[in-house]
Amino acid sequence: MEGLLLGLGFIGVALAILTPFVKSGTGLTLISLAVYFRFIGIETWLPVILFTAGLLLIVFEIFVPEFGLAGIVGMILLISGLYLTIGDIGQTVRDLSLSVVITSGVVFYLIKNGYSLANVNKLILQTNLQDISSKTDTDNTKQSITVGLEGVAMTPLRPSGKVAFGDDPHAYDVLSTDGHISKDSAVVVDKVQGTKITVRQNR
């Protein structure tokens, strides 16, 4: 029961990050975790604070994967918060493992159905891409995108982002098959399916 509630909390985070249902995902997370900590019972707010800080750092790591340390510290704080709440390392590992398995299944399903960080990236990259957007909105001539075409990442790909190909000033929405790719890295088109363009790092 506890592991299921914890899993629902993590699923809410995944929904908020990978889908347009940000409010619903956030609400599911808040409700599930509130019920979880109430069900377990807490004597002080320290475990909740540690758990929340850890979860926020892990989410931060998802958006800024190059930072690295945030994810490690976040995981330590999250586990510490759970352990201080439960008081049993075995049950802590069991609950966390169950929730991770459930969440992984949901994330795999969402990614398989085309969901990604694109909806969040649009908000994060909106300011940085204003100049690019103003140019591309008036440019009606777009380059034909084919497999093997080389380009340059105009934004970090996490795994979605913007890429320019050749002399074409248009910034194309793409999805990286290599996970995170840094800005200004050389990429090559791996697959084109309709309007969906996937790229990999050009090594």
UniProtKB/TrEMBL annotation:
Q: Which residues form the NfeD integral membrane domain?
A: 3-108
UniProt GO BP: proteolysis
Listed A to Z, the keywords are: Hydrolase, Membrane, Protease, Transmembrane, Transmembrane helix
One function term, GO molecular function aspect:
peptidase activity
Highest taxon listed in the record's lineage: Bacteria
Please list every transmembrane segment annotated in the UniProt record, as residue ranges: 40-60, 67-86, 92-111
Q: Tell me which GO cellular component terms the UniProt record holds.
A: plasma membrane
Query: Pfam families, from UniProt?
Result: NfeD_membrane
Keyword Mitochondrion appears in the UniProt entry: no
Note the InterPro entries from the entry: Membrane_assoc_protease, NA-bd_OB-fold, NfeD_membrane
Q: What is this protein called?
A: Membrane-bound serine protease (ClpP class)
Q: Which organism is it from?
A: Alkalibacterium olivapovliticus
Q: What is the lineage of its organism?
A: Bacteria, Bacillati, Bacillota, Bacilli, Lactobacillales
